[in-house]
Structures are given as structure tokens and as C-alpha cells.
Design goal:
Four Helix Bundle (Hemerythrin (Met), subunit A); six-stranded mixed sheet; 11 strands; single chain; flat; Gyrase A, domain 2; Rossmann fold; 428 residues; alpha/beta
């Protein structure tokens, strides 16, 4: 493969900048810049020079041998002073080397996947970790990056290979010394895998919410204080406030970190009957977005109505609590009364909903597991009805294994043969 290089840290002035070189000619490129290289995985201070002997910078140089780097290839990392001029010159010198080229977006990670340093789920976890804004996102992304999903999928895969091996043995080696009735063990393996996958499938929605963010809609009549409350929660004037009803006509979004969870607050148009065509569009959008949100905070004035039905877990508060002596739960975006309590309640509700999160975090993961589960359900039905249809059972097991290949690596017939021969000592 080509030897590639790129700036691994953000562009622009910084204290330190890292340039990564990866590929079969990485060490040669490092020696061309730094002279002798330090021992692998031991950082060494070196002067970097161009082809004319001009000093470019003093840098820490770190080398990784093939098989022990992020990409699985020879890697040299140059930790430079983060000057725009230094970075530019070092990149220029590298680009002049005939056996090197600039890396394409994501190419280092692509090579890590190709070399087996990361599986596909870990690649997704790495992307999520880079994008993480909250503690919950960081924890979830790191679990995926550390290989938990791949490890669990590998256990499922191993059990399905065992089940397939038992079935294949009854088909291909019927006259050999193998168990006559393998259905109890096969059925047990399928039940275990399906139960474990079901738990992960049920947690995908919560995991997706942690990854992309929960939505909390502030709902109420016009001029009830929704925009004032949003501004108080955001700590800035995110929405226009006015004594005139109908000021908010489109949905205003503010991203926040609540209880370590990513939350988008939605300030929606006031709900009422109106003949203003533009305002009516905003109200329709407000209803749709509020209905689709994960949680709604209803603000209601004394004598007012909710204007739409709350869902389970929604919060209903008396608006403009600074002007009311009523005993109900009150809030005031103007004075801050009740705002801390609202944030606490929102955090508790969303944390509870996120509690059943699994390690599968994307629709792609759910889709793969559901396809596998459908095939296993069919295999199970054929086993329970009659064990004469072993060829159909075997095919459904192979289909399930192929579905799980989107989470882990490929599987071929050698895996089945290895399991058969090692398990049953066929002596062939």
C-alpha cells in the first residue's frame, strides 16, 4: 500500500501539532527528516531537516513497528511546535518524497479496519468519541471503541458456528461417530443468542438518543413565557421575547448538557387558533415537533388549558410563577424561580430512559441483529416442528451468521470444518 501522511491534530496555531506517517516507507521518510530514529514506542527529540539541510523544527519523534500501531502498519509520528509555518513546511517536505502521498479523509482509520486493528463497530465508536460533547456520550463511545460490541458479537458468532457445526455434522457425517440428536444443544444455543441479542436491540433507541441527543420541547400558549424560559436555561438571548403574542413562529433550538446527557431544548410557537397563515404554519410545526420530542415541558397560566395531551413523564408547570401565589409547581424564566428544579427533573427523567442503554448504538447494529434474529427464529421453528429439515436449519444459521458479519469479520467454511473436526474427532 501507499505510504500516507497527514496532520493528525486540528489545523491552525497550537502548542503542539502531530503529523502521522503510515505505510511501508514510513521509517524511511522519518529517517530522511530526522536522521536516526528512536527505538520503537520510545519518544526521542530530533531535529527535522529538509533535503537541503535546513532545520525545520525540533520535534519529538515516536515510531511504531508493523502490527503495533493504530493502522497496523509502520507508523512515525512527529510532534511539532504548532506553528502554521512549521506544519506547512514539514508537510511540503513530505509531499516532495516520491513514495509518499497525502492521506485521504479517514484513511488512517480505514487502514486500521483493513488490518484488523479495529472492527467496524470500533471505527464507529472512534467517530463518536471524537464528536462526544457530554460525559454520557464519551462513556458510550469509549465502550464501543474498546471493542465491547465486537466481543459480544463474537460470542454470538461462536455459538452460531457451534450450532451450525452440529447441524452440518448430521448432514455431512451421518455415518460417523457423531451425536444422533443434536437438537437440544442447538436449540439451547439459539435461545441464548436470541435472548442476548434481544437485550441489545431493546437498548439501541436509548443509545441513539445519547449519541444524537434528547429533545425537550417547551410547549404552551402564546406569551406564556416559553422564550424567556429558554433564554434563562441557555444563559443567553437565544430567542426573541416580547409582550406581543406570536413572536416565536419557527422552532428555536438550544443545545445543552443536562446530567451529562446531550439535550436540545426546543422553543416552539405558541399554541392557539389563528387566521395568520404564517403563524399557523409555525403552530403546526410546533405540534409536530413537540409530539416527536422525547419530553415536553408544558407551561400553563392560571385558567389556561394544555392545548395538547401530555404524554407519560411530561412536566406541567404553572407559568410566570413570580406573579402567582398558587400552590402548584411554578416556574419563572424571568426571575429563575423553579428553573434549577426543572433542570434536575429533566435530568432524572432522561437519565432513567437512558439507563437501559446497551452497547449497540446505531440503527445499522439493530438492523443486523434483527436480521440475524429473524433467521434464528425460522431455524428454531423448523427444529421444534421436525428435525428432518436440517438443510433448511443449516441455511438459516448461515444467514444469521452472515448478518452478524456486519458487526464482526467474515466467516467461511473453514470455521465450520474446524469446529466439526475438533468437536467430534472424526479421524478423517
Amino acid at each position: 500500500m501507499d505510504t500516507i501522511f497527514a496532520l493528525a491534530t486540528s489545523a491552525g496555531k497550537a502548542g503542539v501539532a502531530v503529523i502521522r506517517i503510515s505505510g511501508p516507507h514510513a521509517f524511511a521518510a522519518g529517517r530522511a527528516l530526522a536522521g536516526d530514529l528512536p527505538k520503537t514506542r520510545v519518544a526521542g527529540l530530533r531535529r527535522l531537516m529538509d533535503q537541503d539541510g535546513m532545520i525545520l523544527d525540533e520535534a519529538l519523534v515516536l515510531c511504531f513497528e508493523k502490527g503495533a500501531s493504530f493502522t497496523g502498519e509502520q507508523v512515525v509520528e512527529l510532534q511539532l511546535h504548532g506553528s502554521v509555518a512549521v506544519i506547512s513546511q514539514v508537510l511540503r517536505v513530505l509531499s516532495d518524497m516520491p513514495q509518499l502521498r497525502m492521506a485521504e479523509p479517514g484513511e488512517f482509520t480505514r487502514r486500521a479496519l483493513t488490518s484488523g486493528q479495529l472492527d467496524l463497530a470500533q471505527v464507529e465508536g472512534l467517530a463518536d468519541l471524537i464528536d462526544a460533547e457530554t460525559e454520557a456520550q464519551r462513556k458510550q463511545a469509549f465502550r464501543v471503541l474498546s471493542g465491547e460490541l465486537g466481543s459480544k458479537a463474537e460470542v454470538w458468532r461462536r455459538d452460531l458456528i457451534r450450532a451450525a457445526a452440529l447441524i452440518e455434522a448430521t448432514i455431512d457425517f451421518a455415518d460417523e461417530d457423531v451425536p444422533v440428536d443434536v437438537s437440544p444443544e442447538v436449540t439451547g444455543l439459539l435461545l441464548d443468542v436470541r435472548g442476548s441479542m434481544a437485550a441489545e436491540i431493546s437498548g439501541v433507541e436509548a443509545a441513539e438518543r445519547i449519541r444524537s441527543g434528547f429533545e425537550v420541547a417547551i410547549v404552551g400558549a402564546p406569551n406564556v413565557g416559553k422564550s424567556t424560559l429558554l433564554n434563562r436555561l441557555a444563559g443567553r438571548d437565544a430567542a426573541i421575547t416580547s409582550e406581543y403574542a406570536g413572536t416565536t413562529r419557527d422552532i428555536i433550538e438550544v443545545r445543552m448538557d443536562i446530567a451529562g446527557l446531550p439535550v436540545t431544548l426546543l422553543d416552539t410557537a405558541g399554541l392557539r387558533e389563528t387566521e395568520d397563515h404564517v403563524e399557523a404554519i409555525g403552530i403546526d410545526r410546533a405540534r409536530e415537533r413537540a409530539t416527536a420530542a422525547d419530553l415536553r415541558v408544558f407551561l400553563i397560566e392560571e385558567g389556561g388549558s394544555l392545548l395538547m395531551d401530555p404524554q407519560q413523564g411530561d412536566i406541567v408547570l404553572r407559568a410566570k410563577g413570580d406573579l402567582s401565589n398558587a400552590g402548584e409547581e411554578k416556574i419563572s424564566g424571568l426571575t429563575g424561580q423553579g428553573v434549577d428544579e426543572l433542570v434536575r427533573r429533566v435530568g432524572e427523567i432522561l437519565s432513567t430512559r437512558a439507563a437501559n442503554v446497551g452497547i449497540a448504538t446505531r440503527n445499522r447494529h439493530r438492523s443486523a441483529m434483527m436480521r440475524a434474529d429473524e433467521s434464528l427464529a425460522l431455524a428454531e421453528s423448523y427444529i421444534s416442528s421436525s428435525f428432518e429439515e436440517t438443510d433448511i436449519v443449516a441455511e438459516e444459521l448461515r444467514t444469521a451468521i452472515r448478518a452478524l458479519e456486519t458487526l464482526v469479520g467474515r466467516i467461511d467454511v473453514e470455521n465450520l470444518l474446524d469446529e466439526i473436526f475438533s468437536s467430534f474427532c472424526l479421524g478423517k
